[in-house]
């Protein structure tokens, strides 16, 4: 009877967690829609205003070459914090389309921050007040339910029972291997991939982009895939968003390994006797 009650309790707990995850996904999608509705009109207005100024300048100064003027403006914009493409009225680059807004929402909920208009800042305060605690809770529960059994407990037990390592040493080996895996998957491989697909970037630029993106300080003034098509840029933003969430999950798991990987002497003695 007690086992049945325990099974029912676990089933209900899992269903509640699934509902929380679905509500969180809807919350993120809603945030993306709201930021798109608030920010996109302002971006379009700014784009039209600058394009009108550019067109008027070319009409008043016919001796100025349009191509050279575009290069000059592009160089000036590259050192500006704004990431809005204003050199062509029909430019495909958008900062606040839905995918970009969704990326901003996830970045905001994972405490990375971002730029916004006054209206969006007010909504962002309310949105983050609810969203950040919910996001941290969801990530913690995902780590406890999915990552800890696979990433922490199973490797530790394998090293301890099958390789015969003392539990403390097994935990140390596991922590080192997990650190190497995280650094390789989240820093080294993306760095070489970005270096390969961005001909204008150096290896240091690619490494810097990976570091600042994953360390919650933004993108360091770099905009990856600026010359790509809109579909490729949207895919890239989603991949970066998923990468940031994966990093938070792995850090949660690594933190649990550091806190729980070295058991007390009583627990270790029980494990040694059961071996």
TrEMBL record:
GO terms for biological process: stabilization of membrane potential. It is found in: Membrane. It is a multi-pass membrane protein. It comes from the Eukaryota. InterPro entries: 2pore_dom_K_chnl (IPR003280), K_chnl_dom (IPR013099). Keywords: Ion channel, Ion transport, Membrane, Potassium, Transmembrane, Transmembrane helix, Transport. GO terms for cellular component: plasma membrane. The chain crosses the membrane at residues 14-38, 96-114, 120-139, 171-197. Its main location: membrane. Residues 94-146, 183-220 form the Potassium channel domain. Gene3D superfamilies: 1.10.287.70. One of its GO terms (molecular function) is potassium ion leak channel activity. PANTHER family: POTASSIUM CHANNEL, SUBFAMILY K, TWO PORE POTASSIUM CHANNEL PROTEIN SUP-9. This is Potassium channel domain-containing protein. It comes from Amphiprion ocellaris (Clown anemonefish). The lineage of its organism: Eukaryota, Metazoa, Chordata, Craniata, Vertebrata.
